[in-house]
Design a protein that fits this description.
The structure holds 2 protein chains of 2 kinds. Chain A is built from 23 helices and 29 strands. Chain A is α+β, with helices and mostly antiparallel strands. Chain B is built from 5 helices and 6 strands. Classes of the chains: A alpha+beta, B alpha/beta. β1 of chain A pairs antiparallel with β6 of chain B.
Chain lengths: 894, 134
């Protein structure tokens, strides 16, 4: 035609447009489906890595390299697929992917530079991923902040990169730049010392230097110093202490180093004096860093000397002491030992020996005689009881029973974290607050256990429960405590063996107190399993009949690696367990795996509405795939309105016995092959769409006794109506369902409101969801807002996460059982019809409540029922709307 | 000379060879706990030398290593004692390597990572077969 040439267009047939569009549409949807399937593959690989960390697999470095390579490749593809789906809306995600990938590659190759962090940072900012820069002992001390027992002290750390910068050991990279300079470290040091000294009444600092070498099993203490000021604060003295884990704060060889003091005299203004004193502290710390470096160099250490420095306030303590998590007591079993020394009686030390398992009963105590007027933990004075000739009182311990147990519980938690017996130092402040100040791996001469000894014990042992999914290997013993759903974590006795019905995330605080956990239901790939591995808590989930087989109070030994529970305490197995085949934090493979997982597994972006829910906020691969999934769902939820051209695609109009037209577009497996030209309900194979239609076709949802509209409503609705009329002609009035076997995206215009239902019901429950969006109405804003409230209430009754903005309601439901998602879809179908034009009848808030009650009576009762265990297995013969006898029942396909 | 377990029965002797120490470190106590006698090696030369001087009931060997690889160990172990059962463990499992292993007489072929229980069951199967034939 001449006008085609004139306009430069080639003539096209309608069928061509449709074919091209459907191809593009399928291509776009394939991106979404690919995101789902890749996410599943990534999560499966992540779960395998986690299970390897828990001790389930024997693995080697090749496994780590291959798995990281596979996961990274999948994450890259997910990023690509999201950008393909959204027209390259998330290009910065590639950068985040690349940054994390680089870190992972560096971890595998042993390069710690990728873990770039400030060279000086507070102890509270340290996590497992920084272990190569600060040492495992400081990480464990920092991790105590997540533990309900006794915590570590406040303080800061100079990382091994920081000390290398201060000692001039950091070489420039290929571009000639040094990523951390000595001046950067000094700035950090000044800032953190300033903060620390403001809260340190004594102005006395305890400084510990630890060698950090990834090839070594554990960090090694290189020096322990006290920096203290003179009375006028003009001179600082550095005292070096002896290095003996069994002697807290003992003044051994004392060497005083005096830093230069130039400005700190009384003639200087106070603020300058303060600055000067602060610089004196900075120089003291630097002096210590240099002293250690010189000493190590002189002894011919490694070419690159790596050590971290921990600086904390040294308060006036009322008492100090040690804990050794394992010490030989008798041939039959080991115990935990605690010492306590009052600050003013350095030679009078109490020693207590306790059982290593809950409830940490006292085995033996040696109480030192104390001088008169010493007030004991029980409140009595030394002279008020059992006074003897010398004036010393006997019979009262320095530590109360509860404090002994708290120390024991904390020591055992640290032993579990570190994977080997430990020694620790504690101090008690005047406020009776306890702090763990140092942690050491305890190099015990391990008692050899003969195979026969172990075999003999096992022969006589009674297995009372076995089976289930291994979550975290390990051996633990204690009394059984059943954990009801509403248990206050504080009521759980620390050190007991927890037994629960379901491995739900609500049990997380219990894990921090338990010696082991067993559940009747749950998955080794769930959140609680991750926490158990993080805490290295022996854990087995899905143990058949565990609640019945292990009544409360039963004393047991759990061998999680063997998924076996024995009656009573098996001391040889307990000893063997910690020395046996378990993967230990002292194994380099364990440390590398845990480090890798810190950048793969954690999910930080949980709230799609939060400000940091962005590509830049992604800190792990899990964040990236979660972000991609959320954004892909969002894209589909707005798919039809963002692509008005969809109206040109050839679709089929459904024949439904309700006053509603729905056109349907099957992208694969959504309808039976020989569906009619006007498909009916029974032609639908798409599980989510079929269930939705089941609810939509419920007769009560179409009650027609609607009030007539008032003049005000009509006037109020006019601008919105005019906007609708101004919409492109090919989209006006279209109710379009894009479906496949397990997916639906339905965009509805009913009367004057709009809704979108986007749902996925696949085989992987982790990736299933229902998204619902509703807006519009003809009534005035108040009434529309009331309908929004009504819809919000309905959604919240089904545990949707709901946001409301004016008359716009958005609800999301995911990570719930498939049965609940089906129920929700069914009810959303009913809600879609029921809420049609309801805004006009909502004159008061009472009307809103009444409407909710009416809907709840008719439909929300269905929510607890399993709407359809398998939609596709029940082919429908009649639509629910056609059978009024079943009006109040769930649409069951016969 | 074989040692005996609690029941006075001779213990099965297992040689484990893997150039990654973590594999030996974890397998050794797991087998010892079940009453087996275990020797571990991280280099194939030492393992081959030991195979020449002592007979083992079971050899568990990695496939890809510096020096003699798992197939060579399999061949030498069978040459030293035809009764020795060899289990190949590898992180580079392919159909070809599995086929070659079986054709050279491997008892089983296990891909890494593997569950401890799987390899324990594999060894138990060998033990049961031996007891059945004795």
């Amino acid at each position: 035609m001449w006008w085609h040439r004139l306009l430069g267009r080639a003539p096209t047939r309608h069928s061509d447009i449709a074919e091209i569009n459907i191809w593009r549409l399928q291509s776009l949807f394939n991106n979404f489906r690919r995101i789902l399937s890749l996410n599943n593959a990534i999560l499966a690989n992540m779960a395998r890595m986690e299970q390897a960390l828990g001790g389930e697999y024997i693995y080697d470095k090749a496994f780590l390299e291959n798995t990281v390579r596979t996961i990274a490749s999948h994450v890259h593809h997910v990023t690509y697929n999201l950008n393909a789906l959204t027209g390259n809306a998330y290009i910065p995600l590639y950068d985040r992917y690349q940054e994390i990938r680089t870190i992972l590659d560096d971890i595998i190759s042993g390069n710690t530079r990728a873990l770039a962090c400030p060279p000086v940072l507070p102890l509270s900012d340290i996590g497992w991923e920084l272990e190569p820069l600060v040492g495992i002992d400081l990480v464990c001390l920092a991790e105590l902040r997540h533990h309900p027992g006794i915590h570590g002290p406040d303080g800061f750390v100079i990382t091994s990169e920081g000390t290398r910068a201060l000692t001039g050991q950091l070489a420039a990279d290929a571009s000639g730049t040094v990523h951390i300079s000595a001046s950067m470290v000094r700035v950090g040091l000044t800032d953190h010392l300033d903060i620390l000294l403001q809260e340190c009444a004594t102005r006395r600092l305890a400084i510990v230097v630890t060698q950090v070498d990834d090839d070594e099993e554990l960090a090694r203490e290189l020096g322990r110093f006290t920096v203290m000021p003179t009375a006028d604060r003009s001179v600082l003295t550095i005292i070096e202490e002896t290095l003996n884990p069994a002697e807290p704060a003992s003044a051994g060889e004392t060497r005083a180093l005096r830093p230069e003091n130039d400005k700190a005299n009384s003639a200087t203004p106070r603020h300058e004096r303060e600055d000067s004193v602060l610089q004196l502290y900075v120089r003291s710390v630097e002096r210590i860093v240099q002293t250690i470096f010189t000493r190590l160099k002189a002894t011919g250490g490694p070419a690159i000397i790596q050590y971290a420095v921990f600086v904390r306030c040294c308060p006036d303590a009322a008492g100090r002491g040690t804990v050794q998590s394992r010490t030989a007591f008798a041939d039959s079993f080991d115990v935990l030992s605690i010492t306590a020394t009052p600050a003013d009686e350095e030679n009078n030390t109490d020693t207590y020996l306790l059982h290593r398992t809950y409830p940490f009963e006292l085995v033996q105590s040696v109480i030192a005689p104390h001088p008169a007027k010493r007030r004991f933990a029980d409140g009595r004075l030394a002279t008020s009881n059992a006074v003897i000739d010398s004036g010393f009182g006997r019979g009262s311990a320095l530590l109360a029973n509860k404090d002994l147990k708290a120390l024991a519980e904390t020591a055992m938690a640290l032993e579990r974290m570190l994977g080997i017996p430990i020694a620790l130092h504690w101090e008690c402040l005047a406020t009776e607050t306890y702090r763990i100040t140092r942690l050491f791996p305890l190099q015990l001469i391990r008692k050899e256990i003969s195979d026969d000894e172990l075999a003999r014990e096992q022969e006589g042992a009674q297995i009372i429960c076995e089976g289930g999914q291994l979550v975290q290997a390990g051996v633990a013993a204690g009394s059984i405590v059943h954990v009801p759903e509403d248990m206050d974590p504080a009521d759980f006795p620390a050190g007991a063996v927890a037994v629960a019905r379901v491995a739900s995330p609500q049990l997380t605080p219990i894990l921090q107190r338990a010696a082991a956990i067993l559940t009747e239901y749950g998955s080794a790939a769930g959140h609680l399993a991750t926490v158990a591995r993080e805490l290295r808590l022996p854990a087995v989930f899905a143990v058949p009949n565990v609640l019945r087989l292990l009544p409360p109070g039963t004393e047991v030994t759990v061998d999680a690696g063997e998924t076996t529970v024995y009656q009573g305490i098996l001391h040889t197995l307990l000893l063997h367990g910690s020395a046996g085949m378990e993967l230990s934090p002292t194994d380099p493979e364990y440390r590398v795996l845990r480090r890798l997982l810190r950048f793969i597994m954690p999910l930080h972006l949980v709230d799609p509405d939060a400000a940091d829910f962005s590509p830049g906020g992604c800190r792990s691969f899990h964040d990236i795939i979660h972000f991609c999934h959320e954004r892909a769902v969002d894209e589909l939820a707005h798919f039809q309105e963002r692509r008005p051209g969809l109206g040109a695609i050839r679709t089929r109009r459904m024949h439904l016995d309700v006053p509603m037209d729905i056109r349907v577009l099957d992208t694969g497996g959504g309808m039976i092959k020989d569906a009619a030209n006007q498909p009916v309900y029974s032609d639908i194979c798409s599980e989510p769409f079929g269930i939705f239609l089941g609810g939509l076709l419920q007769p009560q949802a179409w009650t027609t006794n609607l009030p007539s509209l008032g003049f005000r409503d009509i006037i109020s609705g006019m601008p919105r109506t005019m906007n609708m009329l101004a919409a492109p002609a090919d989209t006006l009035g279209e109710n379009l369902a894009i479906i496949s076997s397990d997916y639906m995206n339905l965009s509805l215009r009913l009367g004057y409101h709009f809704s979108v239902i986007d749902a996925n019901l696949g085989s992987d429950e982790q990736r299933n969801y229902v998204y619902f969006r509703f807006a519009g109405g003809l009534a005035d804003p108040e009434r529309r807002a009331r309908r929004a409230t009504f819809i919000k209430d309905v959604l919240e009754a089904m545990d949707f996460k709901v946001t409301v903005n004016g008359d716009l309601v958005i609800g999301r439901l995911k990570l719930v059982e498939a049965g609940l998602l089906r129920s929700a879809l069914f009810i959303l179908g009913a809600l879609t019809a029921f809420s049609k034009q309801r805004d006009t009848s909502l004159a008061t808030d009472a009307d809103t409540r009444a409407l909710f009650n009416a809907f709840a009576t008719s439909f929300l009762g269905h929510f607890d029922r399993d709407i359809s265990s398998s939609f596709t297995q029940r082919a429908p013969k009649t639509a629910p709307h056609e059978n009024t006898d079943e009006a109040d029942s769930v649409p069951v396909r016969k | 000379m074989k040692s005996e377990n609690n029941q006075g029965e001779p213990r099965l002797r297992i040689l484990i060879l893997d150039d990654e120490p973590i594999v030996c470190r974890r397998l050794k106590p797991a087998f010892e706990k079940r009453g087996y006698e275990v020797e571990t090696f991280n280099d194939s030369a030492s393992a081959l030398a030991r195979l020449r001087e002592a007979a083992f009931d079971i050899v568990i060997t990695d496939l890809k290593m510096e020096g003699a690889d798992g197939i060579e160990i399999l061949t030498q172990a069978k040459k030293a004692s035809a009764d020795t059962r060899v289990i190949i463990i590898t992180g580079f499992a392919t159909l070809e390597t599995a086929r070659e292993s079986y054709s050279k007489g491997a008892f089983d072929f296990v891909a890494k990572p593997f569950k401890l229980r799987d390899i324990l069951e594999c060894v138990k199967k060998i033990e049961d077969q031996r007891q059945a034939t004795q």
